[in-house]
Amino acid sequence: MDLDPEDVFKDEEDDLDNEFYHQSESSKEYVVYLVDASPKMFNTTCAGNDQKDETHFHTAVSCVAGSLKTQIISRSYDEVAICFFNTREKKNLQDLNGVFVFNVAEREHLDRPTARLIKEFDCIEESFMREIGSQYGIVPGSRENSLYNALWVAQALLRKGSIKTADKRILLFTNEDDPFGSLQDAAKKDMTRTTLQRAKDAQDLGISIELLPLSRPDSEFNVSTFYADLIGLDGEDLAQFMPSASQKLEDMKDQLRKRMFTKRVVRRIEFQIANGLSIELNTYALIRPTVPGAITWLDSVTNHPLKTERSLICEDTGALIQEPPKLFQPYRNENVKFLPEEIAEIKRISPGKLRLLGFKPLSCLKDYYNLRPSTFVYPSDQDEITSAGAQMEPPGMHMIYLPYADDIRDDEEIFPDTEEDAPRADEDQIQKAAALIKRIYVKDFSAFQFANPALQRHYAVLQALALAEDDIPETIDETASDEEGLTRPAVVRAAEAFKHSVYGDSYDEESDMGKEKMSEASRKRKAIAENAAKDYDWGNLADKGQLKNLTVGDLKVYLNAHNLPVSGKKEALISRILTHMGK
Questions:
Q1: What family does this chain come from, according to its entry (predicted)?
Q2: Which of 210, 537, 551, 560 is the most buried (most CB within 10 A)?
Q3: What pLDDT sits at residue 226?
């Protein structure tokens, strides 16, 4: 088997099929969606995305449904469970009142989301009152505690897996900030104490509890009343909780169909400082290109993934080769053979350790030295500093990949002898250009504000196919120009001022874009295309149906000669020609 030199020395990060880009067992996430189904969730309304009133229950259900659809694409290995509390009916392994675990056939309670689960959950509101029902689970004179029961059921669902190999979370949706407000004195204190202890037990097992509060129109959700103690908020974290929780809810409602690489250790390396002093570092990939998922071949009958096996056959005898293939590299009319161990040794050009060589000023690091996304290195024995659930001061640094000296070229090498001929802008033109840029400048710009429209369309088609939807969800191209914004009077005035400053008051934009300004090369190409088009009797070919006998290149000759698009397959080109000829 011939060696591929490019493959031997290829970086692991350049291989999109590398395990680096795939979810693994160690990065799984187990999530239980805990949704309050009390009558207050159905009676309270808020303005939805279309400015129509919607119940808090509808808001919570739509958030969960959107998250499930996104998860199939972004985190397909994660497992979820959906649990309602304050319900009339009960359905859970512990047989506790007021808790209903929603599920479909042929699926465990905590499992990867399926198309059937999503389709049936999308219709849950239509049948909820009839099949599950809503009621207050905490009432005076009763020892029933539906919130306690819900946390117990959620904790039991998350017994699966180890906290060393998976993150476990409970997402709690409710609009009741004081679940024990209807109780008095001893009963209230007792239920509060037992519920907080149940939450603490879950957190001691490595389960995080996240609250997604829904505020009523007449009053804001007061997290200090009860839930601050349940999820462990105080001080600055408590003050920042409501804005961050509201943003988290909006993010879930408007969640994009995009692949999110969860934070996970790429690899561990040793950082050698000096005199035998070294520390272990974890490395993280902060930014990586998003690509469509790999194709998975399925069995046409069972719909199960197929396992691919490869066999090598001898060209001379046709027999199966049982021995592992030998690798070789042709050299001077001779095949130099390599063992797999030798190939591994060749690729191992360094011991995989970082060594401190010295220090240089930051001014030596240029922006254009950045060849590819950096890797974040982080000491493995230091705890994170967090606030309101977000990391504040990561005790690490970015490892930037630098080019070799031969890869950096001076401008004079790329653009020789252009110093005298290059036009220079005067001070007025620079000021007008700066004013125009200021008018169209996007404040607080972030690349995360704009989704890849091609990927969004790809994911929308996948969703429609998986859920057997008749209509493909509409995708918005956020990279398209803001036509409305560009027509604002201030922007138009700035653009006109810049145009007059550069081209003068007598500038005719139409004529500048016309044939008079066509470059010499463009005129030559057009003349060649027109002359080539005369070699065929296009009308006769079209009448006799012989256009299909021409090659794609021949068809493009006609299209280029008549300034028509040349994209598409052969059938599309022929149709375009016939339309242009009126046939």
A1: Belongs to the ku70 family.
A2: 560
A3: 92
Contacts made by residues 203-206, CB under 8 angstroms, sequence distance 24+: 203/232, 205/155, 205/158, 205/163, 205/168, 206/163, 206/168
Note the Cα 466 to chain centre separation in Å: 19
State the 10-residue block means of pLDDT for the chain, 583 residues long: 47 43 58 94 73 83 87 78 95 94 91 89 91 91 91 93 82 91 88 94 91 81 89 80 70 53 71 87 80 78 82 87 82 86 80 85 85 84 62 76 80 54 83 92 79 85 78 82 85 90 74 53 59 73 83 82 80 85 79
CA-closest candidate to residue 297, choices 289, 307, 288, 287: 307
Q: How far apart are CA 373 and CA 159, in angstroms?
A: 37
pLDDT at 322: 82
Judge contact between 202 and 231, C-beta under 8 A. Answer: no
Question: How many Cβ atoms from other residues are within 10 Å of residue 109's Cβ?
Answer: 20
| Proportion of the chain in helix, strand, coil states, percent, rounded to 5 | 40, 15, 45
* Other CB atoms within 10 A of residue 202 CB: 20
Q: Are residues 26 and 266 in contact, defined by beta-carbon separation less than 8 angstroms?
A: no
Name the nearest CA neighbour of 157 among 207, 230, 122: 207
3-state secondary structure of 311: coil
Long-range CB pairs of 400-406 (<8 Å, 24+ gap) are 400/365, 400/369, 400/370, 400/374, 401/370, 401/371, 401/372, 401/374, 402/369, 402/371, 403/369, 403/371
Is-contact 32 161, C-beta < 8 A?
no
How far CA 436 is from CA of 118, 206, 441, 497, in Å, comes to 48, 54, 9, 9
* 238 token code pair: 């408590």
Question: Which residues, at least 6 apart from 168, have a Cβ–Cβ distance to it below 8 Å?
Answer: 29, 30, 31, 158, 161, 205, 206, 207, 208
Supply angle C-alpha 160, 163, 168, rounded to 5. 70
Pick from 454, 459, 453: nearest CA to 476: 453
Report how far residue 390's alpha carbon sits from residue 538's, in angstroms, rounded to the nearest whole number: 67
Q: What is the pLDDT of residue 24?
A: 42
Q: What is the dihedral of CA 462, 466, 468, 470, to 10 degrees?
A: -10
- Position 533 scores a pLDDT of 64
Listed in order, the ranges of the chain carrying CATH 3.40.50.410 are 26-260
Q: What is the pLDDT of residue 561?
A: 80
Q: Which residue has the tokens 């500048």?
A: 512
C-alpha to C-alpha distance for 412 and 419, rounded to whole angstroms: 9
Distances (CA, A) of 396 to 270, 382, 393: 14, 10, 9
C-alpha 441/C-alpha 515 separation (Å) is: 33
In the chain, list all ranges with CATH 1.10.1600.10: 436-503
Number of Cβ atoms within 10 Å of the Cβ of 329:
14
> Which CATH number applies to 436-503?
1.10.1600.10
